[in-house]
Amino acid sequence: MDWHLTWDAARLSGLVSAGAEWRWCPAGGLDVTKPDGLLWCLSPEMVARLRAERLLPEAVREAHP
Prior knowledge:
The mean pLDDT is 91. Helix content is 45%, strand content 18%. The protein is an alpha+beta fold.
């Protein structure tokens, strides 16, 4: 596991906890609308890495199609 991966995991967890809106993309990525209205897109590869390391927040993990 690398530093950037844990940083992204912590950022995603914080945003989800803060009530950010998110949705799964058809290709397996994740679109997160931050509280400031900006969009943060996680690629399918990044989501797969987060999932493999068990770093996806529980709410996101449970809602995966």
